[in-house]
């Protein structure tokens, strides 16, 4: 049965999968999570609801994987500049200002929904939060190994909080979308000093 299920889930080509994810992201920006329906996704992509449920199980997993899809494709372990500052700057530069603005819009669309929907929260933790936390830990461990930061610095546990917080606060406080310039300045002024890391390479 497992082999049959796997075969059924693998019928969608990567190109078709990307098309579906793009449609989901467009709908999220247009109507938000609560108003997004599998019917709407099926209509937008000329798919059957049965195919969508067979491939993703439900709306929560489909949305989480779509959001994960739109993140820059380069893996964290492909970036190793020799310094923590260089790594964090390189990770930031993977998204241009337009992509950052779109990401900020998605965050606003999903912020309340994530905490009001256990299925969505579970899917986000599995497909987004936990993988990114693991990747950031790799970046930090390299910095520890190089002697840039101390392994016992309590701020290490809050790197993701700092990065997400600065990204979200840009719109909330300044009423402007996050940009590369803003995020890079934030890393140098807030994140690196908190970690005790050099601000200059």
From TrEMBL:
Annotated region of DNA binding: 37-56
Occurrences of domain HTH tetR-type (ranges): 14-74
Statement: the UniProt record of this protein carries the keyword Transcription regulation: yes
Superkingdom to which the source organism belongs: Bacteria
Keywords: DNA-binding, Transcription, Transcription regulation
PANTHER family cross-referenced by the UniProt entry: HTH-TYPE TRANSCRIPTIONAL REGULATOR RUTR, TETR-FAMILY TRANSCRIPTIONAL REGULATOR
Protein name, entry field: TetR/AcrR family transcriptional regulator
């Amino acid at each position: 049965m497992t082999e049959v299920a796997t075969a059924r889930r693998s019928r969608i080509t990567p190109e078709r999968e990307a098309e579906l994810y793009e449609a989901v992201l467009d709908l999220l920006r247009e109507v938000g999570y609560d108003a997004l329906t599998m019917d709407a996704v099926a209509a937008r992509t000329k798919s059957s609801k049965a195919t969508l449920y067979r491939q993703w199980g439900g709306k929560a997993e489909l949305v989480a994987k779509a959001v994960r899809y739109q993140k820059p494709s380069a893996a964290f372990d492909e970036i190793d500049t020799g310094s923590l500052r260089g790594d964090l700057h390189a990770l930031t530069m993977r998204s241009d200002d337009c992509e950052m603005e779109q990401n900020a819009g998605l965050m606003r669309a999903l912020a309340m929904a994530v905490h009001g929907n256990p299925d969505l929260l579970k899917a986000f933790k599995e497909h987004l939060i936990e993988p990114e936390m693991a990747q950031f830990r790799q970046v930090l461990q390299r910095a520890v190994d190089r002697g840039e930061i101390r392994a016992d610095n309590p701020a290490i546990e809050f790197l993701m909080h700092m990065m997400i917080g600065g990204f979200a606060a840009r719109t909330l406080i300044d009423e402007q979308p996050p940009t590369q310039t803003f995020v890079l300045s934030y890393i140098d002024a807030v994140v690196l000093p908190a970690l005790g890391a050099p601000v200059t390479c």
